[in-house]
Amino acid sequence: MSIQNRIAATVKKGFLTLYNTEIPSVEFQATRKEFEGDITVVVFPMLRYKKGNPVQIGEDLGNYIVDHLDEVIRFNVVKGFLNLVITDHLYLDAFNAIFKNEQYGFVKPSDEKDAVLVEYSSPNTNKPLHLGHVRNNLLGYSVAEIIDTCQNVWGTNLPIKSENIERKNEIPETRCDRSKALKDFGWKPKFSFQEGVKAIKERMQNDLI
């Protein structure tokens, strides 16, 4: 069970214990950067089930969570937002588990299943776009190019399924251009990308011999 699900279960149990009232769900959001915390429980929706001061309800639930959930070490309440601080041990344990799992992030190819790459920017149309929004577009395009080149070099043809769904106001294509580096600094790569992949393949084959 994820830490968010464990917190939700504890909040529901605490609400029932403290106020003798069940709540159907718990609303979360990211903690604002100006406040301490890793995850925030939104108290306002709970006022439908328990009338009262949202700050006091947040304090009551925060104390209950700290007393009954080891992963949460402290909290603070800002108006109707309960900001929870998660122990570093939770992250360290997760990282250590990933480090020890040599197959983490790998999926065995199967002829019975399609390989699906989902890529999206999810920009907020009410705010200006910036380079952070372009990042995912560039990553998706770059990953597709890397897959295509590696399949050509290795002579494989793993199934890749692309959900090419056009969205309103979306830039249809973005790519990096090294022409400015050539113009301003006279720089150009010594090898093409395909030549580099071929060199990696040869090096890997030599290491296996």
Give a summary of the structure in a few sentences.
With 209 residues, the protein is α+β, with helices and mostly antiparallel strands.
Low-confidence segments: none
Strand order of the largest sheet: 1-2-4-3
Q: Quick one: biggest sheet?
A: 4 strands, antiparallel
| Rough outline | elongated
Distance between the termini: 44 Å
Strands, total number: 6
Element pattern in H and E: HEEHEEHEHEHH
Calculate the mean pLDDT score and round it.
Answer: 82
Number of helices: 6
- Helix-strand category: alpha+beta
Beta percentage is 5-15%
Rg, alpha carbons: 25 Å
Q: How much helix is in the residues? A: 40-55%
When the domains are counted, the total is: 2
- Looking at how many chains there are and whether they match, the oligomeric state comes to single chain
List keywords for this structure.
44% helix, alpha+beta, Gyrase A, domain 2, elongated, 2 domains, four-stranded antiparallel β-sheet, 6 helices, single chain, two-stranded parallel sheet, 12% strand, 209 residues
Question: What report would you give on this structure?
Answer:
The chain folds into 2 domains: 3-88, Gyrase A, domain 2; 105-208, no CATH class. It is built from 6 helices and 6 strands; from the N terminus they run H-E-E-H-E-E-H-E-H-E-H-H. The protein has helices at residues 3-19, 54-68, 88-100, 131-154, 179-185, 193-208, and strands at 28-29, 39-42, 72-78, 81-86, 115-117, 160-162. Strands 1-2-4-3 form a 4-stranded antiparallel sheet. Strand 3 (72-78) and strand 4 form a beta hairpin. Helix 1 packs across helix 2 (54-68) and helix 4 packs across helix 6 (193-208).
